Amino acid sequence: MSNNILPGPVEAGEIEKYLPHRYPFLLIDRVVSMEVEPQKKLTGLKNVTKNEPFFEGHFPGDPVMPGVLIIESMAQACGMLANLDAELQGKTGDMYYLVKIDKARFSQKVIPGDQLVLEVVQKRIIRMMGLYECQASVDGNRVASCEILCAGQ
After folding, report:
1. Coil, strand or helix at 39
2. Can you spell out the DSSP letters for 50-117?
3. Domain encompassing residue 64
4. For labeling, which of 28, 72, 104, 126 is most exposed (least CB within 10 Å)?
5. Annotated catalytic residue within 21, 58, 123, 142
6. What is the CATH number of the domain that holds 147?
7. pLDDT at 94 over 90
8. Does 5 reside within a domain?
């Protein structure tokens, strides 16, 4: 059985202790769960609101969250998983940089009012590089997925 290690959600103000991103580029609002057994997994949320600055130009009259920002949201969830895991091990979290995106797929638009559920699973760590399997969904329907490789420094 999975071991949920968070005593409660990690809210936006606390997320800023783990990630260097700030408004308007902090794209994860809450961490709702993290597991370490049988695999390292984190679930986070991004509330998509109509006042997001990117909606002014993407697209006027038909606002759609850009796919690259959905991927960035998943990458930030990976960073949260890596940093929270490091903290559990008594280590200081590194700065994590996006190295590679593979197998990116988009299957549905993300629009204002949606709540993006971000699920990331750590597949392996090799030489300060982490490989993550990522999925974003809205109302239980997958909207995007990819594999992300991050490097810690």
Report:
1. coil
2. TT-GGGGTS-TTS----HHHHHHHHHHHHHHHHHHHHHHTT-PPPPEEEEEEEEEEE-S---TT-EEE
3. 10-152
4. 126
5. 58
6. 3.10.129.10
7. no
8. no
Active-site annotation holds for 21: no
Q: Indicate the pLDDT class of residue 3, thresholds 50, 70 and 90.
A: low
The pLDDT of residue 2: 47
Q: In angstroms, rounded to a whole number, what is the distance separating the alpha carbons of residues 100 and 91?
A: 25
Q: Is residue 80 part of a domain?
A: yes
Asked, for residue 116, whether it belongs to a domain, the answer is yes
Residue 113 backbone zone (phi > 0: left; psi -120 to 50: alpha; other: beta): left
Binned at pLDDT 50, 70 and 90, residue 150 comes out as very high
The tokens describing 116, both together, are: 């993006």
Per-residue model confidence (pLDDT) at position 121:
98
Question: Does residue 1 fall inside a structural domain?
Answer: no
Total residue length of the chain: 153
Residue 2 three-state SS = coil
pLDDT at 6: 78
Six token digits for residue 64: 């759609």
Structure tokens at 53: 């600055």
pLDDT for res 153: 83
